[in-house]
Amino acid sequence: LFCLTGISLPDPYEDFMYHHLQYYGYFKAQKGSLPNSATHQHVWKNNPRYLLSGSFGEREDVLPDPLQKEKLLKPCTPSILSADSLMLSSPLLKSRQLLNDEFGKVNPCLREPRDLFSFFSSGGPLQPPRWPVECEVIKENLHHIEWVPPQPEYFYQPTGNEKLPEIVGEEKGTVVYQLDSVPTEGSYFTSSRVGGKRGIIRELAVALQGPEDNTLLFESRFESGNLQKAIRVDTYEYELTLRTDLYTNKHTQWFYFRVQNTRKDATYRFTIVNLLKPKSLYTTGMKPLMYSQLDADTHNIGWRREGNEIRYYKNNTGDGQQPFYCLTWTIQFPHDQDTCFFAHFYPYTYTDLQCYLLSVASNPVQSQFCKLRTLCRSLAGNTVYLLTITNPSRTPQEAAAKKAVVLSARVHPGESNGSWIMKGFLDFILSNSPDAQLLRDIFVFKVVPMLNPDGVIVGNYRCSLAGRDLNRHYKTILKESFPCIWYTRNMIKRLLEEREVVLYCDFHGHSRKNNIFLYGCNSNDRKYWLHERVFPLMLSKNAPDKFSFHSCNFKVQKCKEGTGRVVMWRMGILNSYTMESTFGGSTLGNKRDTHFTTEDLKSLGYHVCDTLLDFCDPDRTKFMQCLAELKELLREEIHKKFNELGQDMDLEGSWSDISLSDIESSTSGSDSSLSDGLPVHLLNIAHEVNQKKMYKKRKKKPLQTRKQRNEQYQKNSLMRELKLIDDVPERAGFASTLQKQPTFFRNSENASSSTMRNENPRLNEVVLHGRDKGTSLDPPKMTSLIPTKSRERMQTEKPGFTVSCSPKRSTNPSQEPVPDMKPNWSRNRYPATKRGRATMTLYPSLHIYTYP
């Protein structure tokens, strides 16, 4: 502190603050250069703007608060300068914690706490990816330009004369490229480092014997690369073996490798010999992707579909344990001595994502409503990024009223389609479009653009470095083994406690079906019957040449219980989806029989935003139109099922109670539908975590007082007396009657509880299961389809029973009673005692005893 009397006196507190600020780096001047009152006032009057370090290395203008300025600059009177005002005014002090308001004035509040992990800055390099220590990595940085072909790239049309090359192998061929010491099943991830394996990076490609040697030079030890081995079996023919996902012995689908030393006029043949899926889009005309470095440098041409004589067939030279499949194609390179790349789909690497996020963080406009945070670190220590996108709210009430949308991608690292859709979504939602601004005003977007960065970096197709498919472990309790999934689920759980989540969507790729479609979950709530199908139907209307509603599926299978879609649905998100985008192309509209480009996929990101506006429009006209159309589509599906069974039934009035699972087939296309379970080295850890949780839940039985023990004894005695009364011979007749009640209740469970059912005389053709329609939270009524010929056989006369299933649980004589069914026909899994929907009119009422 400074005493403003014209004489500078030493002060203990001043000396302490000087050393304190200098120690923490806020004050860089010498002690003698501290400003006195005159200098301080002169500075405020003549140069009121000072630069403080802002976020991402930028500088910001700071103006003093008027009230604070008035207190500090009282004319002709001595004043005391606090340490806070000194820090705000002095240009020699550095702080990144002070906030500025929109008028450039200093706020007396601090910035949000910094993240636990450091981010890249605009002036510094990107965080280099971390690799397992077993992986060799070349030092070259690869970059591919984005390019959209001027003409549609049509599917390959088979001629029937395609050659099926015989697999030769190492015995008759020459190995020209091979990775060594690749971790497979039986080993597990231990540690990682930037650059992967220590030591000198060996040259794996063969050495050329001279300028006339036309052997291709292969390489895949770069980010997202995947090629295990290359064998030269003829002058221009090569057999390729893909590397399995690290720490596994399967999941070979994604490939991405480089070839050099090309010849222009020759026809080369490549054959991948160890694919695992029996079906593939390559059988329906899909082509591989090729990238020419010379074309990119000279003509600005990027990835394009190339290849002829494409065949996908079974490899008959397997070891008998699991069958392999082959993909073969021919190619002519455009230039001599070119560097070319081949890929299963357009690559999108972890470095590509970091470059994009860096551009967002460095944008002064976008960084105002897009906050970049660290969700967690992956197993290898790579950052899993979380973006929160929303416009600043004017009031706390406005902020609390916003609903949330959660989007994620690349849980399967080889499905780069998801990243391109995510990029299109981010491009639009971060733009200055009026629709984007409206979406940011009414929603809070939580975006995880790359859930499995480790798998993306090493070139896996499906797994993380734990050797497991993360999209089967969303229910995991192992935070350290599956951090990306655990923290994502926990983030969404906390978000649900704060606000409603309108939509959850995880972006994937599909290897067996064309077009783009969604997998959802049938709603259990009768109030929201078919509502989960409205968003996909709207999306199909907004993107009719790309999105196929008829390929969507909403069945929840037991083997998919661990997927993000099902877990989030069970957590309470009604509209929970997996978006599947094909590796191939479209069979719809104007894009029929053409491959998808990156621009097509990015446009889907825009259509998601457009559909979200339609879905949440306060004017419910579009929503109700789609709902009516969905009901008509369901009616057609039901009639189709009856026709397949050879039945002709009129379901008017009761068709809406048909079980949706009965008319839908299971989802297909996933090669890991069944979870592999935990790796061996994680089984004990999971058991220990479960034991700890059970121990915490287990509570000791509290000790009872003498009074409590006496009361318990009296209750037990009363119950024994009542049991003896129930066993007397006078009640033998009534007891025999009670034995029939479970059968009756089982029959009554098949009766409909909906008003629609009671008003329709033809409802005896369909037997309904479920609860009252009047209860909005009850699960949907389940039905079983009964052939007309068996109707009379199913019905039986049973005197003495009158069943009423109205929502008010009262017997209405004006309504037509529902005929009973045979006792042994219904097999409802809900016990009769829990339902309580039937009333008896003939038998005496049961006496229910209550105890104190």
Automatic annotation (TrEMBL):
Residues 693-707 have a biased composition (Basic residues). Keywords: Carboxypeptidase, Cell projection, Cytoplasm, Cytoskeleton, Hydrolase, Metal-binding, Metalloprotease, Protease, Zinc. Its cofactor is Zn(2+). Pfam families: Pepdidase_M14_N, Peptidase_M14. It catalyses: (L-glutamyl)(n+1)-gamma-L-glutamyl-L-glutamyl-[protein] + H2O = (L-glutamyl)(n)-gamma-L-glutamyl-L-glutamyl-[protein] + L-glutamate. This is Cytosolic carboxypeptidase 2. Residues 803-815 have a biased composition (Polar residues). Residues 691-717, 792-830 are annotated as: Disordered. The active site is at E580. Residues 346-616 form the Peptidase M14 domain. InterPro entries: Cytosolic_carboxypeptidase (IPR050821), Pepdidase_M14_N (IPR040626), Peptidase_M14 (IPR000834).
